[in-house]
Amino acid sequence: MAKRSKRPEAIPVNPADLNPGHRWHRPLLAPGVSQVDFEERVDFRRLHRYRLARTRQALAQSGMGAMLCFDQHNIRYISSTVIGEWARDKLIRYTLLSGNGTPWVWDFGSAARHHKLYCPWLDEDHCLAGNPGMRGAIGPKVGLFEAAAKEIKDILLREGVADMPLGLDVCEPGMLFALQKQGIDVRDGQQVMLAAREVKSHDEITLLNTASAMVDGVYQDIMEALKPGVKESQIVALATKKLYELGSDCVEAINAIAGERCSPHPHNFTDRIIRPGDQAYFDIIQSFMGYRTCYYRTFAVGKASSAQIDAYKKARQWMDDAIAMLKPGVSTDKVAKMFPKSTEIGFETEMAAFGLNFCHGLGLGLHERPLISRLNSFKDPYELKAGMVFAVETFCPAADGISAARIEEEVVLTPDGAKIITLFPAKELPVSNKY
Q1: What DSSP letter does each residue of 76-145 carry, written as one string?
Q2: pLDDT digits (tens, 9 = 90+) for 138-184
Q3: Which domains are delineated in the chain?
Q4: pTM of the prediction?
Q5: Regarding beta strands 250-258 and 279-288, do their DSSP bridges make them parallel or antiparallel, or are they unpaired?
Q6: Phi and psi at residue 251, in whole multiples of 5°?
Q7: In 3-state terms, the chain is what percent helix, strand and coil (to 5)?
Q8: 3-state secondary structure 57-79
Q9: What is the per-residue pLDDT for 338?
Q10: Residue 8 pLDDT
């Protein structure tokens, strides 16, 4: 009988790489978008090591042998590679990490060769060209799914984990079927990656705080420009231009909603012309070095009505009550109780009202852990941890039937509680171009 080869030893996680390096005794940094030689700003190699160590730790605790990722945020977290917003919805890039190996990256054509030249933290022979079919644009008869699955199986065999479950985050159905035909036991790996990403390091918090500082400045420009005769779409254009000038690497979306469009919240923008007395709110979703903002502010245009002011006060109170609860060790169901029931804001169910009054984690992704709401947190509560970064959102429709207040604060959870990093004033309803 042939002697079975010994499984390669798992690569140990260096405890130093798992140290998030928090400096809670000092102010949270937002040092600028450039590197300098006279201050320590973001140490990107330290950031790479932390993210990879967190992934290895989560993988070891999962009982899975490897993680295969098509989710762009997971690919960047593991491999520290990115080729831009173009790749967001293609499902063409992927990365593989086993407990016994270093990251493998399959990328779009020449991008793989670029990684070999400019990503020395990756093994050169682990940067490969790949293409599973571009969401069906290349027909299944070509056999790209099958070829990719065989290549992955060969690596799993080589690294000694082919008989263990494989974690997978997202993929096309054809990719899943091809992996299963190779005899691979595929499991849900997205939960493993979300667990890895939930506690941010000092470097990640610095990048998130810098991204927030960029939006602080954009809201100053919006407040000055927000006047009758300006279109929602013009505010979107103004904000987008400013963000790229400040150093954004992706303006993912900007919501711009005014007047009778405010309630119910449509989550978009149009060419509607701003009018005197409108209430208007905006959400700016963009990233700096991959780290995202989700940052709402509400304004009254020229003047504010009593109905608008009352709605804003309610939204602010819900916001402040939720933030006051945010401390390490607090269970998420206790925070969810601070938000109004769906019926209090005119919706029949928590599903119908979802996303209006809740918290969601921020990082490389827009929606990470923790996610706190009346829809999920009473059924699946868990404890908050220092180093989590998340957005707290509230919404309150006004008694006039058309206006609404929408506020959002991003917070870093320190050992002493939540530290707000979205600094454009929002304690009271701002009035733009007051008359």
Answers
A1: HHHH-----GGGTTT---EEEEETTS--EEEESTHHHHHHHHH-TTS-GGGEEE--S-TTTTS-GGG-HH
A2: 999 999 999 999 999 999 999 999 999 999 999 999 999 999 999 99
A3: 15-197 (3.40.350.10), 202-432 (3.90.230.10)
A4: 0.96
A5: antiparallel
A6: -95, 100
A7: 35, 20, 45
A8: HHHHHHCCCEEEECCHHHHHHHH
A9: 98
A10: 67
